[in-house]
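FIELD: query
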Amino acid sequence: MTVIVSCVPRENWCTITGYAQGGTYAVKADLSQSDIRPRELKDSVEAILSAIDKSVSGYNKGSLLCRLNAGERIRPDGILMDLYRKSYQIYCSTDAYVDVASAPLYDIWGFGFKSGEFPSDETVAKTIASSGMDRLVPDMQAVLDSNGMLDAHDLLLPGKGSALPKLNFNAVAQGYSSDLVASFLKKKGVRDMMVDIGEIYCQGHNPQGKSWTLGIDRPLDGNNTPGADLQGIFHAPSTPCGIVTSGNYRKFYIRDGKKYAHTVNPKTGYPVSHQLLSATVVAPDSFTADALATYCMVIGPEAAKAFVLSRNDIEACLIFADGDSTSSWCSKGFVLEEQVR
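FIELD: result
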């Protein structure tokens, strides 16, 4: 998904950009009702992103998450405990299709934190048996020792084996990050904003006093440049919301003529194989939108449609393969201005 902004200078508007979580971030905010200044805003945003990286990054080997996954005893911070708790709730509400404790499955397929190889059916079955949040307690804080410490084995429920639990928050971390930054801005009095940290949170209006405008990328293999080829344009509501796209057209590999996408079904242990190419979800916050976009990509087009229609708090656009082209399905509240190729 690509953020499209007509950058016309407006008094009191501030735009900051930088690098975070393996990519770039952008924050645009109207500071007219806030006492925070641009330099302080940039420093504060980067401090938040640094704290997230040190806590739950799967690529920073010194992060609390990596140390926990390695079996080290750690003192979890508020970010790790909060994200774990929220992820457990999502696990339950998505019938176990969004499972942050399925990290070993992503690793064996080469889509996680390790370079995996094409696994055998036996390896997949063995990995499923030793992963998953059904083995773990719902609240990390509840199993801390008297000094506030724990290791991964402390998360295991009785009778759920001894294999070291490993977590991967890739499906929700960027949405969570956008929410944290947005929460900071709201505490500072900001009401009109757009936060893009790989996933988007926005509310209010853009510098022109209009809706924030988002481009939905056409989910075709080879479309690796955000904004280069758009399926359509979406005008965000003025109410606070997270807007997240999940897709299978940029992270995949081909083996024996078959495409293996990075979305792995934690129940089967295998990459999904269906016609749904991308799912864009609008939800009250970015964490929820991030998780539910992943959920839609796991369960496939028909189940995803039914799920979206069953909820009155989300909207969605599903794009699926249609021969050599694509077609889209949108819920009633998601108006997509389709682009002509």
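FIELD: remark
Confidence is low (pLDDT under 50) at residues 1-9.
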